[in-house]
Amino acid sequence: MCGIIGYVGDKDVVQVILDGLARLEYRGYDSAGIAVEADGVLHVAKRAGKLANLREQLASTPLPSSHHGIGHTRWATHGQPTDANAHPHLSDDGRIALVHNGIIENHAALRADLEARGIVFASQTDSEVAAQLLGVELAACGDLTQAMRATCGQLAGAFTLVAIDAQDPDRVVAARRNSPLVVGVGQGENFVASDVAAFIDHTREAIELGQDQVVTITPSSIDVTDFDGHPATTRRYHVDWDASAAEKGGFDWFMRKEIFEQPRAIADTLLGRYDERGQLTLDEVRIGPEELRRADKIVIIACGTAFYAGMVAKYAIEHWTRVPCEVELASEFRYRDPIIDSRTLCVTISQSGETMDTLMAIRYAREQGARVIAICNTYGATIPRESDAVIYTHAGPEIGVASTKGFTTQVVACYLLGLFLAQVRGTKYGDEIRAVVAELEQLPEYVQQVLDRADDTYALARAMVDVQDFVFLGRHVGYPAALEGALKLKELAYLHAEGFAAGELKHGPIAIIDSTTPVFVVVPPQGRDQLHDKVVSNIQEVRARGAHTVVLVERGDESVAPYADTVIELPRVSTLLQPVVAVVPLQLFACELASALGNDVDQPRNLAKSVTVE
Ligand code: AGP
Prior knowledge:
By secondary structure, this protein is of the alpha/beta class. The protein contains 20 helices and 25 strands. The strands form four sheets. Strands 3-2-4-1-10-9-11-14 form an eight-stranded antiparallel beta sheet, with helices on one face. A six-stranded antiparallel beta sheet has the order 5-6-7-8-12-13, with helices on one face. α10 (about 305-320) links the parallel β16 and β17 (about 325-330). The protein is globular. The structure holds 2-deoxy-2-amino glucitol-6-phosphate. 2-deoxy-2-amino glucitol-6-phosphate (AGP) binds next to α10. 2-deoxy-2-amino glucitol-6-phosphate (AGP) binds near residues 303, 305 and 403.
């Protein structure tokens, strides 16, 4: 998820773009860059690191005066956060400058074809492939808008592209597929951007672009077509948010915005996972298939929410690979004298990639000869750098301290890892793997269905604003989902909330249940009856003791109705995949209850986004 802006008008474009990027830094801050056109020549400044680094460079080496340019602040997905990999990217002939948000799935094949045609690349990024392709198309047709349409027709994946042509001083052209793009409608000036925050200081009139559309702006015109050049319909609206709300997309909290970003984050995490041979692949692999086949034990190491994602992963990885899989709290792992050797494969999960407990645990594991695969949301962070292979979740920056899209994309990445290991070890056939991936690709829609009913969960939260104690129950993969729901409530509402394995309740914890205790229960799909029926029995047990039961159950499962005070319907998914949809109502509940209590949802007391101390 990156921040993008394009401008053409009568103002100093450098100032407009820098101010716009400042409002977009929450979308990514691995690097920042700007390209402007002056007298038929493109001038580019770009630096790794935060926007301040770019401002520093421009202060010492200003760009020429211009009224026409583009800017970018990056959240890296392909290619280390370096100056060379920073956007904008230029075409080989220097005529085009382009910025990109998203993931171009077929970048490898396109790069190979362009290099075969003599194009020299300056970076490792998938984005530069779009810049070079656009340059080739422009050289062929001479018109930036037409070249953009031709380029978009060859790209697969998710992309917002914004480009300028050195020989066309009054035009900025942009296009989008599966990635946001809005137009800011000015007087004698116009803007394109990832979201309205970039131009809200200049205009509150906006046009939201639809799927597969191309927009051409000049100081006095806005023209929108589809990828084939046919005129397209758009939605114009007035933005009545203030600048802060604009950065949150109109939501009250970054956390709530990130809950609603999960369909996109999951879809992006699934993008580009197949290589040209149709085999599942990881983002970075510094470990051979033989070593993966030799592994006789998998140890998942993480903290907090990431640990619960690891608990879900255990069920999937063991079921698909038949390799014993342990899940360890990083802060406990190296003090228990673990049995680790060269046949142990460690999997570490970390949104920030900087959690000290987790980092120290994997350093210890490597000293014992283990190999490490990292699942991380932060490109180039310490933990993936010190691992032998990496799967990056493409959730974009997670600003809220309480992890939401971090969790669901970690779980999806764990499923991908389990399928990858099953592929390498031959414990699942290609068609079986593709069948699971096909269901994974339905998850964004399933999560959206849950989000569409958020108001029901909000009403439940507001009705429970005076409740002090909550219990969450689940079995199998529903147990870590219950633990995650309890953690969300603890860290946001500062309330006593505890998750239990549903079958464990009768061994003691049921003593705390009474009529003042809401009990949330994650009910497994009916496909695994011995699992499902036992959880229904657990609901009866707590209901008999007066608990208010809030039951999360798949659509059409009427078996729980007699014992449920509140039913939260879930889309029908396979048992192993259910945590991705079941956790969403629990996130929404905790967010709304904390808001109702007047808490700071984005920065809860006593917590930090990345715990870099042991
Ligand atoms: C999650 O809501 C918490 N903020 C916390 O448990 C977090 O998941 C944990 O500190 C691990 O962080 P990491 O994923 O960045 O390693």
